[in-house]
Amino acid sequence: xKRILLFIGLLLGVVSACKNPLDGLELRFKKPYPxxxxxxYYTVExxxxxxxxxxxxxxxxxxxxxxxxxxxxxxxxxxxALFLSIDSLGPRPTAQNPLRFTVVAKxxxxxxxxxPVEMGNENQRSVALILxxxxxxxxxxxxxxxASRSGSVDRDWSVETPTPIIANQSxxxxxxxxxxxxxxVAAKEVGGTLTARFQAVDINKSNNxxxxxxxxxxxxxxxxxxxxxxxxxxxxxxxxxxAFLLQIHNEQYQLVKTASQPIRVRFSVxxxxxxxxxxxxxxxxxxxxxxxxxxxxxxxxTETPGKVQKASNGDLEYVAELSHLSLWVAGFTKQKCDTxxxxxxxxxxxxxxxxxxxxxxxxxxxxxxxxxxxTVNNGEIIKINGLESDQFVRLRITDALxxxxxxxxxxxxxxxxxxxxxxxxxxxxxxxxPNGPGFxxxxxxxxxxxxxxxxxxxxxxxxxxxxxxxxxxxxxxxxLSGLDSDQKVRLRITDIVSSAVVTSEPVDACASNAELVxxxxxxxxxxxxxxxxxxxxxxxSLPNSDRSYTFEVIKADTKxxxxxxQSSANNGxxxxxxxxxxxxxxxxxxxxxxxSSAQVVSNPLDACTNVTTPLVLENFKVPPPxxxxxxxxxxxxxxPNSGATYQCQVINAATNGVxxxxxxTVNNGEIIxxxxxxxxxxxxxxxxxxxxxxVALSAAVGGCTATxxxxxxxxxxxxxxxxxxxxxxxxxxxLPTSDRAxxxxxxxxxxxxxxxxxxxxxxxxxxxxxxxxxxDQKVRLRIYDSQSSAIALSAAVDACATGxxxxxxxxxxxxxxxxxxxxxxTLQFPCKALDEDKLPTRELFGRFRETGTLQxxxxxxxxxxxxxxxxxxxxxxxxxxxxxxxxxxxxPGYFSFSESAYKLRKAxxxxxxxxxxxxxx
Length: 921
Hints:
Blueprint: H1 2-17, E1 37-43, E2 54-58, E3 65-66, E4 81-86, E5 99-106, E6 113-119, E7 125-131, E8 141-147, E9 157-164, E10 171-176, E11 182-183, E12 192-200, E13 219-220, E14 235-249, E15 258-268, E16 274-275, E17 280-281, E18 287-294, E19 299-310, E20 316-324, E21 327-334, E22 342-346, E23 356-362, E24 368-374, E25 381-383, E26 392-398, E27 405-407, E28 411-412, E29 418-422, E30 438-442, E31 452-458, E32 464-470, E33 477-479, E34 488-494, E35 501-503, E36 507-508, E37 515-519, E38 535-539, E39 548-555, E40 561-568, E41 574-576, E42 586-592, E43 599-601, E44 605-606, E45 612-616, E46 631-636, E47 645-652, E48 658-665, E49 671-674, E50 682-688, E51 695-697, E52 701-702, E53 709-712, E54 727-732, E55 742-748, E56 754-760, E57 767-770, E58 778-784, E59 791-793, E60 797-798, E61 804-808, E62 823-828, E63 843-850, E64 857-858, E65 862-863, E66 870-875, E67 883-889, E68 897-903, E69 908-912
Parallel strand pairs: 1-7, 22-29, 30-37, 38-45, 46-53, 54-61, 62-69
Antiparallel strand pairs: 1-4, 2-5, 3-4, 5-6, 8-12, 9-10, 10-15, 11-15, 12-14, 13-14, 14-21, 15-20, 16-17, 18-19, 18-21, 19-20, 22-25, 23-24, 23-26, 26-27, 26-28, 30-33, 31-32, 31-34, 34-35, 34-36, 38-41, 39-40, 39-42, 42-43, 42-44, 46-49, 47-48, 47-50, 50-51, 50-52, 54-57, 55-56, 55-58, 58-59, ...
Organism: Runella salmonicolor
Protein name: Ig-like domain-containing protein
């Protein structure tokens, strides 16, 4: 202590007597080297490793490693982290010339954690390692053997995992044959004392092996394809058969990578393991996919599949032959299909734009994987995308016009084959002919007003399609209408005088320009209209009345009705008949009493007679008199007074028959008067509310009741009144004048419900007039800009407001110009912004054809531009003024949206997409 104090005193003396030795000294700190690799060590309990951990670096490029401050003193931090940098003395690592080294962590009580590393660039890599304890309960089997200097194993070497691969299965056994030459990743022999580490891996437990499990969400990420360097698609494990880690090194921690003879690994498997591609349980001879993970390069590799075979005890076992050492996973996987199945339509249906329901059905679960609509014209191909490799599906198409359902054959989701689907059971689309063919009558007969019976029949089936009566004079043209298309028809005429029948030639039902001659020369002269007709004089003892009675003219022999009419039946009234022909024959006149069951029938007489015959109304009752004053109903209502009218009915209280129908207002206190009733009638007044479905029904009351009755309509909803004048918005815009249409919406300010959708130009000063709005609500006008995510929203205004309201669209972007001969197609979504993560695709494929033609033509694909609310393209394939059919979808052949018979009136075609599924919330 005295020496220390003396030294301090001397130092202070020097400092006080001499110039400060620190003057002019600049303090410089070394710039740290960038971290190339950081390794975080844990115990299985998730704790930091013991402080006495030793770090050893081995391998051909271990001398290139330094600490971040350019030392060789490699230490583990208190929280278990190791940071390594690459020196600046040698070449930088590349994919062609990587740095290879091994990091070994040694600590008593734990299995050595040996990490191979291959760095092909200078990007920082982070690795987490789990220290596995030693002992009889260790999950890692450590075994040793020896190999010659040339790397040849001295004896047959067999190692077993301490625990089964999977519960209820056997442990895994790895066998290396004597004489097998072992080499490292650089193809150098690995000789000397060999240490093997072999363990079963539970991929559901991240700390089950010394590596943090590289399988996340049961997914093997982009494994390199077998026999190549190209990356495949992600493989999602559906059934894990087994996973294990095998690692071998010598005393210098030179790691074995390859073996001259396959290292055979075997373990038992459950006989209930399901083979998804064969759709059955596994059996001997089946192959099961195998994947390896190289911890040095952090890459997955697709390997030669292992096979299922029968073990000596009769059980099933999985055998794999390993050409190198890694972490291995055997199991069935699935992946998104690059190419899905296609279905070629075989159909006899006429070409049409009719859309049919299509469903892609999972055979195993019955779940509908995809639902869409498509045309099903003959030869059309429906392509299915987005399926997974373990899915076996059928395409189900339902007849849009009938009950038929057609299912395809079973096909794998990744099958690129084209399968035919026969839709011959589907019904043809029924289309009505706007005009049909004409038939010109050729006849030698004199003109007559006699009406012949005509029948339209199907030319193939003879089924009757129409029947009617009309004259058939020479040169008259009988034209058909209202027939279904896609059929040929004939016109058949029957002569009532003779047995002659004339049938036309077949003609297309829609042949509006056709005019076929129908020759009825074989017909006989038709009966002539009667020159005279019978007269009946009413004989009645009843008092005169304005009541009407029902009369019928019937055939005397068959009692078939020829005519029916109503007339008064007062004493002395004359009933004159007419409209009969010479062949009508004997007739009778029959009249009914509406108060009793009495009826009177005249004697038979010839239809062409001119005699006057008395018709005596015997046993008829005296009709009650008509009410001298109307029946009144006073309305009880809590509705506001308005001119809205409601449907009313006068109901017969005895029969519930409707006697009168009319419309009237129902303001409170208003009296509804009903005329034309009779004293014997008991009635009710019924009023219906169209808004709510409510019905007001009065009490039953006599038709001549003088007292005003009450009818209560307080259950009726307040009527929705329409604004008398349109709501007008004046546009404030900086856009150049154009005829470009923008999507507009009128929304309720309270509920935010969309009331109207339409399109409008947005030239500065334009007036947007909105008619048909309901009163008593506040609304806003909302307009979307297809060029950006901008949205213009007006202030909330009364729907019936007068004067011009303002809508400001100065935030909208100027759309790019369209060159002469070009057309812009925009698919506009009703969103403030699209949720790009929700979009099923960022590229849409479209096609078009002129309406009425068969040949579809492909359009350039529409690629989504981030930040916009629409897909758009500009093309010179369309022509303004023509009418087109248009389809678009996420892949060629999968068109989920269509527009039919659209007349392209201008070069800016904006199509509003109704769904809000892809909008940001």
